[in-house]
Every structure is written in structure tokens, then in C-alpha cells.
Amino acid sequence: MNERKRGGTVLLTGLPSSGKTTLATATRDLATRAGQAAEVLDGDDVRRRLWPELGLSREDREKNLSRITTVAILLARHGVLAIVAAIAPYASDRDLMRTRHDDAGLAFIEVHVATPLAVCQRRDVKGLYAKRASGALAGLTGVDAAYEEPMLPDLRIDTSGETVSESAGHVLDLVIHRGLIEASLTPQGG
Predict the structure, then answer these.
(1) Which residues contact 131 (CB under 8 A, 6 or more apart)?
(2) Between vectors from CA 91 to CA 19 and to CA 159, what angle results, nearest 5°?
(3) Which residues, including other chains, have CB under 8 Å from residue 71's CB and lie 6 or more apart?
(4) pTM
(5) From the CA atom positions of the chain, what is the Rg in Å?
(6) Domains delineated in the chain
(7) What percent of the chain has pLDDT over 70?
(8) 3-class SS at 13?
(9) Which residues of the chain have pLDDT under 50?
(10) Which residue, of 34, 59, 151, 168, is most buried by count of CB atoms within 10 Å of its CB?
């Protein structure tokens, strides 16, 4: 086993309630069972805890993802797999995230959590779709605010068509393929 782990970042991007945070947590658990240090950076949680002054305007979303990118790069430089669960609705912001990782010599994997809008609306984990339907919320990503679907993500997953562990297994397989975790270290059935 290598003394020094190779860090990198996995961005899970998708609509609200697509399963990003659930998938990030399951992937982190698989990675840590394989001996890889891993952390989840949830876009909403990070915004609320570290920079609550940011709202949901395009400019604030750009700032949020830029700051999350900075944290992810710091973690990755220290051998941690940073798993970012963020809507990240704009292609230019996701491209900048990739460029910053490339410039730092760090791996970056973009996963589009491509769960259909109708499924996201049924799940409605945070009640956002219900608030939008009642008129209490405007500017919901994918409904009346832009979500620029990734054209060429490294992986596209529809979480409505498989279990969480199956989806996390696909992400982990890609992480292994990119050399961030040694295949011999992965847990059986992982």
C-alpha cells in the first residue's frame, strides 16, 4: 500500500433532489472502506455553514462553487478524495472547476446525476418543488431557473434506475479507473 494517497475531486452535479448528497455519502463510505481518505462537500451545507451571506443569484452560485473548488483542491493536495455534491447549474463554472484542478495537477471527475425532473419532483427532499408549486419560491433550478446539463460528463447516472449502492459503485469504479484508489484495496462487493 502506498504511503501517500492521491487526492482528487469528484463533482456530482444535478437537479435538486436528484440524489447527489446520498450518492456522495455512499461513495465516500466505499472509498474510506478501501482505505482512501474522503470527504463530502455538500453545496448547500457548505454555503450555510461557511459563507451564509451567499444567496442563489448566478453571481452567488459562481462564488459558492469557486470557494468549494478552493476547499476541494486543498483537500485533494493532501491526498483526500473530495466528493462535491452541488447543483452547479452553469457549464462555465463546472469548466472552471475542471481547469483549476488541471492547473493544480489534480484529478477531476464530473458526474452528471441525471435523474429525471419528474422523479426529483416526487422525491422533493427539501420541499423546494412544493414551495415552487405554491408560489412561495421562484427561481428553482431546472424549473424556472437554468440548469445547463453537462454535455460530456465523465459519467452520467440516473439514480431512479438503480440502487444507491449500484450508483456509488459506478462512481467508485471510475475513481479506481482514474488511479485515485488501488483496485486491490476496494472492499469486496464494493
Answers:
(1) 137, 140
(2) 20
(3) 41, 46, 82
(4) 0.90
(5) 16
(6) 25-109+161-190 (3.40.50.300)
(7) 93
(8) strand
(9) 1-4, 188-190
(10) 168
